[in-house]
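Deliverable D5.2: sample structural annotation.
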Amino acid sequence: MRYVCSICGYVYDEAREKLPFSQLPEGWQCPVCKAAKSLFTPEQKEEAPKPAKESDKPEKISLGEEEAEKISAGELAALCSNLARGCEKQYKNQEAVLFRQLADYFTGRVPKVPEADITTLLGLLSEDLKDGYPLLRSAADECSDRGTKRICVWGEKVTNMLNSLLIQYQKEGEAFLSDKEIWVCTVCGFIYVGEQPPEICPVCKVPGWKFEKVEGRDPA
């Protein structure tokens, strides 16, 4: 049996490793991206895609003026930040700088959240994974928007990893970060916990020098 990391695609082959995946300790992590054991899934055999029926097509989603007005400053900041990273990935530095300036502007207009804690954040991440990304993926498929599809793939992997890291931190506390550093990919936002950043980002495949170290963590 083979198990695949849903973040970086690393394959754990039981026949090669001589140890059933189920017997790995719960604290075992992906050797490439440090994803938790829970983020591995059994390898599925690829099947030929079936022609889509008219009833299977997702409902069209349109964004009118009323809906656009409901987008918060935080959402606009995240949108501009993602666009900046996308431009950087395409080596469009001038556009990346402009989107980053917009992201900083909207970030400054985000109101403070009085009760921001790990439980609240985990709830929001779970909502994104359960409802947000499937909705975005359906809209991108309907419009054949390849750019949005790529952002969706990257974003879902990054969100899954962040969700996994928060669960581990919730269980272990500061011991989880003992003698470790936190690194963030400046292109896709992937978070890596370790002494040094990975040689290549497991999500967007940019080189390790694109990672930045998170400085100044406040003690618990």
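Annotation notes: The chain has a mean pLDDT of 84. The chain is about 45% helix and 10% strand.
The annotation will be released with the project's public dataset once the embargo ends.
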